[in-house]
Amino acid sequence: MLKTLPVRPLTQAAFKPFGQVIEADASRMKLINGGNTERFHALAEAEVVGDGARVILNIFRGQPRPFPYDVAMMERHPLCSQSFSPLSGRPYLVVVSEDEDGKPGEPQVFLARADQGVNYRRNVWHHPLMTIGEPSDFLVVDRDGPGNNLEEFFFSQPYSISEPSL
Amino acid sequence: MLKTLPVRPLTQAAFKPFGQVIEADASRMKLINGGNTERFHALAEAEVVGDGARVILNIFRGQPRPFPYDVAMMERHPLCSQSFSPLSGRPYLVVVSEDEDGKPGEPQVFLARADQGVNYRRNVWHHPLMTIGEPSDFLVVDRDGPGNNLEEFFFSQPYSISEPSL
């Protein structure tokens, strides 16, 4: 019997150990463009390391996951942060773990609204993109360059996520 | 009588002198995440220069522009590229100029679809965010750090843009 993980709303406070929530936070707002535009400034930072590395923008198109979903693995990127901003106007799940001696601890599951992106800090364990219900596009800011930027971990006993109620 | 600028569809070919179109280009696709996700790779690059600079992610919320719209000024950023990816599922206008001896030439106007972002190369003249019809949010990737990163130019004779037909 797999352990079923609780699904919590995504908030800046809850996500702080893992990175930043990219949302229109009124406390970060300044007016620009002669008052036409609200700039929510520096909600996240793209960090890349290593010689010959560059910050790149990509689109990820994820197929919806089946539920209940078995979380059998997690991954992390030693050389860069990685951000996901939803372009399709749909909520999605964010699954992250604190590091425990080089392995991911028990995953934490957050339900992100359609107007919330996330930025995983460098080396933060996360599950690959988990979309709900329909194929969904995301703008992804991460890294291109030489070096091994992917580490994967497979759980001996997977965890389960029930279908989230939207 | 102001000169009315034509509005053209945004395409990678037409936009090439100014930067990149950030769209799900099938030629840049590779499957990742065990086949779950299509990654449209490195559609654009964030370029920042200068000591102490970092690549940041922001949200811009633009109020709709009135039409006919008078293009009275253009701006450029000497220290960074700047990308705009629509988060609100709405088309918008992109207004850019080639540089002519340190000043913007006659502006070129592109109608971007809701699924097309743009990345202005460093030092490319552009008009501030031009949304249509309703307030719209964009993910913006640009720069934070010291130094003067804004240059503005005001036309002695503005240009006009008619309300685009969507």
From TrEMBL, chains A, B:
EC number: 4.3.2.3
Catalytic reaction equation(s): (S)-ureidoglycolate = urea + glyoxylate
Record GO terms (molecular function): ureidoglycolate lyase activity
UniProt keyword terms in alphabetical order: Lyase, Purine metabolism
Class of the enzyme per the UniProt entry, highest EC level: lyase
Record pathway: Nitrogen metabolism; (S)-allantoin degradation
Pfam families recorded: Ureidogly_lyase
Cofactor(s) listed in the protein's UniProt record: Ni(2+)
Function: Catalyzes the catabolism of the allantoin degradation intermediate (S)-ureidoglycolate, generating urea and glyoxylate. Involved in the utilization of allantoin as nitrogen source.
Assembly mode: Homodimer.
Family (UniProt): Belongs to the ureidoglycolate lyase family.
Protein name: Ureidoglycolate lyase
Naturally occurring in which organism (per UniProt): Rhizobium helianthi
Chain's gene name: allA
